[in-house]
Design brief:
Blueprint: H1 2-17, H2 36-53, H3 59-63, H4 65-68, H5 72-83, E1 103-104, E2 111-112, E3 117-120, E4 125-128, H6 129-134, H7 148-159, H8 162-168, H9 171-200, H10 205-305, H11 312-343, E5 351-354, H12 355-372, E6 376-381, E7 388-391, H13 393-409, E8 415-423, E9 426-433, H14 455-458, H15 467-477, E10 481-487, E11 491-499, E12 501-503, E13 516-519, E14 525-529, H16 533-543, E15 549-553, H17 556-562, E16 570-574, H18 582-591, E17 598-602, E18 618-621, H19 626-637, E19 641-643, H20 666-677, H21 681-691, H22 698-709, H23 713-731
Parallel strand pairs: 6-8, 14-15, 14-16, 16-17, 17-18
Antiparallel strand pairs: 1-2, 3-4, 5-7, 7-12, 8-9, 9-11, 10-11, 13-19
Helix pairs in contact: 1-2, 1-5, 2-5, 9-10, 10-11, 10-16, 11-15, 12-13, 13-15, 20-23, 21-22
Amino acid sequence: MSWLCTLSADLFINKSLGLAPPGIEFKRAHLYDINPVGCGTLALSAGIALAAHFGLFGPLMASLATYVTLIAFVISPLIAWGTKGKYYLARKPRHSWKNLTSITCSICEHPFEPEDMAWCPAYAAPICSLCCSLDSRCHDMCKPHAKLNAQATFVAARFLPEPALAWLSTRLGRYAVTAVVAVSLIGAILALIAHQVSTASPETADVVNRTVLIVFIVSAVISGVASWFYVLAHDSRVVAEEESSRQNTLLLKEIAAHRKTDAALQTAKETAEAANRAKSRYVVGLSHELRTPLNAVLGYAQILERDETIPPARQSAIKVIRRSADHLSGLIDGLLDISKIEAGRLQVFSNELNIQDFLDQLVDMFTPQAAAKGLTFEHQRSRALPLYVRTDEKRLRQILVNLLSNAIKFTEQGTVRFEVGYRSQVATFTVSDTGTGIAEKDLKRIYEPFQRGEADNIRPRPGLGLGLTITKLLTNTLGGEISVESERDKGSTFKVRLMLSAIDRPSTAPAPERKIVSYTGPRRTIVVVDDNEDHRDLMREVLGPLDFVVLTAAGGPECLTLIEGVRPDLFLVDIQMPGMNGWQLVEKLRGAGQTAPIIMLSANIGDAPGPGGEGHDDAIAKPVDVQRLRDKLAMYLGLDWIYADELAALPASVPEADRPLASPGTAHLAELSRLSEIGYVRGIEAKLADLSKIEENGAFVDASRGFVQAFDLAGFAAFLKDVDRGEEKSHG
C-alpha cells in the first residue's frame, strides 16, 4: 500500500505541481540509483504504518494502519520540494534522436524506438535498455555522480567530519562499515525471531533468548570474517578492472596510433607511387627526346660508313661516332628498362646467339679502351663453351658492357680480366680489376640507383650511378645471380651466373655485307610520315640510293592530302606526332582503303597503340638500324635486291640517251601540266610514282624527276609540251 501511494503521489501531485519532470523515464542509464523522493517516501510511510500496526499509536491506529500509508501524499511533495526535484534524471536525453523513428542497438543489433535507447560511452554507440541492464563492465560510467556509492559519499560528507570520511574510505573503514551492516542485519533478524517466539510462548523465552544470543555471536564472528574476505575480493576486483581498463585504453591508443601510421603509410605510398609514375613518364619522355637527335646521328653514321668516297683516314672517326651513338642508345635502353622492371613489364626474348662471336665483339670493343688508359685487358673463355646458346642477346650485352665499362673506368693502372666459364648449361662471367675497389660499407648499397660510393667523392667520374642497378635488375630478370668481392685499393671482382642453354648445330659463318644498288621489278613508292625534318631527310638519304620513290609528309593531315589518288607501296609512320598521332593516322589510312604495309617508327617502341592501333604490320625502334630496315622492306615488298657485285654479270643496259622516251598519254600529260602550273611539287612526285609502276614510262619518269628535283617547273612545263608535240607527230 505504501508503494502504491508513493507512485500515486509522485504521478498525481508532484508532476502536477512541477516538482517532478513531466515525462516518465524508465531507462536505468538516465536515473539515479537512489531517488530520495520515491525511496524516502516509501521508507517513511511504510515505517509509520508499521509502527501504527504494532500499536505504537494505540489500538485504533493499529486497526487503521493500512490507511496510515496515505501519509505518502504529504511526504512525497515535501521531499520533492526539499530536493528541488534534481534526483529524478541523471542526464538529459539526446535532442538529435527526437526526430528518429528507430535506432539500432550496437549490442543486440535490433531496432528500437528512441525512448528505449541511450547513448553508452563505454561502447561509444547507442544501446537498448535491456542490454544496458545486463551489462556489468561499464560500472555506470554514463552517470558517475548518480551511482549509489557517489550518493552515499555525498550524504556522508554532509554529516561526518572530513577525517572520519577519509578513514571510512580506507580498506579498514570499509571493512568496519560492511561488518557493522552485516552484524546489524543478522542481529535485527534474530531479535525479531526472539521477540515473536517470546510473545507466543513466554515459558520458553529464556531458552530462546540464550539460544538466539549464541547464534548471534557465532554469526557475528562468521560475518566479520566474511566481510573481510568480501572487502579484499572487492579491492582485488577493482584493481583488476582498473588494470584491464588501463591496458584496454593503451591498446585502443595503440590501435589509433596504428591507424594513423597506416594512413600515413598509405598516403606516403600513394605519394611515392605518384612520384614513381611521374618519374617513369619523365624517363619515357626524356628517352624519346634523346632518341630524336640520336636517330639522325646514328642513321647518318651508318650512311657514311657505307660511303666509299670518304677517305680511309676519316672512316675510323665515323666508326667512333657510330659506336658512341650505339652506347648512348644502350644507356637510354637502360633507363627505360628500370621503369619497365619496376612496373613489371620488362619483356625478355629468348633467341639463338653465337656466343663466340658475341664475346669477340665485346673483346674488340673494350681492348682499345683499356689500351687507351694504359691497362692490360685479359680474356679467357672455357673450352666447354658451345658455339650457339639460347638467351636474350640485348640483355646479356647490357650486363657485360656495364661490368666491363665500370672495370675500365675505375682502374687507373694494372689489369682488367674477363673470364667466361661454362658448366652444366650455366655460364659464369667474371670481371675482375685492380682498380680502386669498393669500401665495405658501400658494398650493401652499390646496387641502389644513383649510388656512387665514397671513392667518387675524391675523384668524380662520369656516369649516373645506374650501371650496377640495371645490371642487377637484368640479371634477376634473366633468372641469374650476381655477386661481388672487393677490397679497398686492391680491386673488385664481379661474378654473374646465367642459364645459357647450348644449341647443338653446325657453325654457319655470316655472309659479308653487300652493297645494294637497286631491286628487280617496277619502282616502289614509300611514304615517310614524321614531324621531324631531319628524320625525313635521313629516310630520303637511306631509301633514295636504293632506287625507291620517297614521298614525305610532316604529319597525318599532310599525308592524307599527299596520297589522294596515289597508292603507295609502303608507309613508314612515326608514332609520336603533334595533332594526329601515328595510331590515329593508321586508322584513317585503313579507313581510306589503303592496304599497303604500314611500319611504325618510334623512339619508344613499347608505346601502346591507341584506337585503331592494330592496323599496322610491324614496328622498328629508333635509332633505326639501316640493315634491319632493308630486311623489313624486302620482306613486305617481296624485293630481290640487286647488289653492286652483280652488276658486272648483268647485260649492258641501253644508254640513257638512247632509251625511247614514250609518252604516258595525253590525259597524264595534262594532269602533270596542271600540277606544274600551280606549283604542287608533292602532287607531281606522287603522279610520277604512280606512272613509274608501268615499265614503259621509266624513261619519261626519270627525265621528269630531274626537273622536279631541281624545282625547274618552267623547264618541266616545256618538257611536257615537247613530249605532247612528239606524241601528236607520231599519231599524225
